[in-house]
Amino acid sequence: MRESVKETVKNILTHYLELNKYRKTPERYTILDAVYEMEGHFTLEELGDKLIGDYNFPVSRATLYNTLKLFVELRLVIRHHIQTTTRYEACYNNGSHCHQVCTMCGRVTEVKFQPVDDAVRSLRTKRFHKDGFALYIYGICSSCQAKMTRMARMENMKKNQKDKENESRKS
Question: What is the 3-state secondary structure (H, E, C) of 37-59?
């Protein structure tokens, strides 16, 4: 399945480049391949690291940015502005979905929720063609909740110990 998607997006890119008389550069195709190998959401830096680590193919930040901009225009990649970070996601054949965003650590996880899909699909719009949607649900993930609980317990223990020390001094 993944290989057929990669072949399809490669054909979409090739067709666009030929139609507009743009060069078919190895950078564009390697970046496209790397994007469709990434798991979930990624930053420009993470994509650059993958290109260096997995492909031994370093490219400049400007090339990455411009190529991803082209992929967004072709609807091969979607750009998410999550909190203070821009993240990207391969979107061909990926469907619309909801995102859980932890406001503490920034971790983003995808959530499929059929009632939301159905509501958006049945939504009637005027003079507007729906391509898809993205819903962001902000909160605190279980890992960060556990850290906060541990920190609160430690602070409580320190406070109790100081109170005991103060009481022993008074006596």
Answer: CCCCCECHHHHHHHHHHHHCCCC
Name the burial class of residue 34, with classes exposed (0-12), middle (13-18) and buried (19+) by CB atoms within 10 angstroms of its CB: buried
Q: How many helices (H) and strands (E) does the chain have?
A: 6, 5
CA nearest to 135, candidates 85, 96, 87, 89: 96
| E-state strands within the chain | 77-82, 85-90, 97-102, 108-111, 134-139
pLDDT of 131 strictly over 80: no
Identify the residue whose tokens are 């503490």. Answer: 104
Torsions phi, psi for 56 (to 5 deg) = 50, 50
* C-beta separation of 57 from 30 below 8 A: yes
Output DSSP code: residue 22: -
Residue 107, pLDDT score: 86
Q: State mean pLDDT over 149-170.
A: 83
Highest mean pLDDT among 49-58, 88-97, 124-133: 49-58
pLDDT at 1 over 70: no
pTM, two decimals, is: 0.74
